[in-house]
Protein 1
Amino acid sequence: MGKKKSLERWALRWHSKNRLDGISEHFMVDDCLPLFFRTRNLARIYCNCRFGYIKHRKDLRTEPHGWRVPRAIKVRITIEELP
């Protein structure tokens, strides 16, 4: 078994709920890579700058979209060397 390293970071989780698709949740990515932040505050600042408009758009929060503002969540990232 190879070396293993774990660290904790903050990520953004997308959430939407509508009749057509049901509940949809996933980690936010940028250029095919997951977004990780060192602190919760940095994650929230990024979220408010990039997705804060959703708070003020009732048309996006209701059907058919059901969007919600992404939330900052704490995650554990584990990196393991493979043989």
Protein 2
Amino acid sequence: MNIKITYGSTIHTDRTIAKYECWTFETEEEFWKQYDLIADNNTTADPNDLTITKRAYITVEEYREAINNG
């Protein structure tokens, strides 16, 4: 499994920005097992690419700290 973190390009009025965690799996079995565990309204998944993406909103301060320490 490989994890890639990216961020949105819009700062919202509540001072948050989207954070996306994208998991890529080696096997279809791993993909479906994880999907069953974490899927919710903030999840998108592509079974053809074996990827699952979770969206969360973090504060601008958390974003700035993450990109400065990344």
Protein 3
Amino acid sequence: MSKLNIRYSEKFDIQRVIDIIKKIDWFVENKYNYKNFSFPKALDKEKLKSYSDEEIKNAVIAEYKEDSYKDYEKILVDNWEKVSKELKFAFLKSCLPYQDEYIIYLTRYGTGGSYNLPNIVVSNIQYSSKEKVLQIIIHEITHLAIEENIIKYEIGQAQKERIVDLFFIKNFPRRVFTQNVYMSIDTEKIDEIFDANFPNMKEIIERTSK
């Protein structure tokens, strides 16, 4: 079983909001409606780019409650042994890297989840119910596992999300959820490639790029 390192802090939430606002143009370009993301209530979603870092900091501090994270931390700790085994089995089957430790940041802001190589996941507890937080963690850890090949073969954002969803459906059917971010593309080709080449994820990603 890999080690689970759960973190949350006022400082992280402040930086999370700053980083999400800086990426607004990227979200728009990739068909995400950033106005559906969660932000401090003091910030007007119509004017997000106009706020200074100090204004963002004050808005986060005004509503930061550390206790709001503790129930989610408990859910992750209580379920991690089972989830870790499921992930490891699925990744080994597909020759995907499985980390000895995963660092999980809990936040109340931004998207439902995100990730940074090699082993960092961010999960938004305000965007996710207590039941869904495990789904988000599995989803983002799957991103981590395939990201190097996604970069290598220059897979687009929507295509990448479809591949992750198909992997999720195949390996974790009891926990499954899907997204609508790729509804603007024709997924038929990706689905056919996935079905024909699973569990070889490298082959799936390489063929999707062609």
Protein 4
Amino acid sequence: MPEAQMTAGQIQNKLNKDTTKYDALELGHWMAEDIEEQLYQAAHTYENMIGENEYCVVMLLAKDPLLKNVIRRKFYCWPYLPSPRPNQAVFLYDKRKQRITKRLWILPSDMVMAELSSLAVVDKRYKTMQAWSIAFFQGKFWEYIRYEHNIDMLSELEYMSKHREELIKAGCKIPASHDPEPFDFSKIGIKKVVDAEIPVSN
């Protein structure tokens, strides 16, 4: 059966049986081949939905909760600086120029971010990523990004506050700005935790 017709589960089973050793660098280059094309596709898709002349194009790497070997790339746009998170790349798109004008930030996995922010010396290739990671953990991310790129774009909460009235009139629900309730860890029980790799019969 051709891969295009296979379900995600069938592809997962095929990958589980694959014993080939892959070069991580080659795999990374292969994964990055069409990123620019996908970023522009997302930017053009959102052009008529976002009223701002400049907006953020985001690429997020996300693991599938059920298929352990699958990493999905998600592309979308926001009219504000999105909340920073691991495995995220954010670019600034200028609608008037019809092009991406800045790479705002690229954050690696959470483990790599933590390691970079704790090291005193890193290779020059990772200096910028280290600075982003440090700003993230110090809670000064927006200030650093605005300073680095000489921009004044608002964060999500700032944007929502500025456009509050028009968003309410448009029927949008404005998120509460207060801190979320802390998670009650006493609710976790051994029988409630399910291993995604163990098949369930009923």
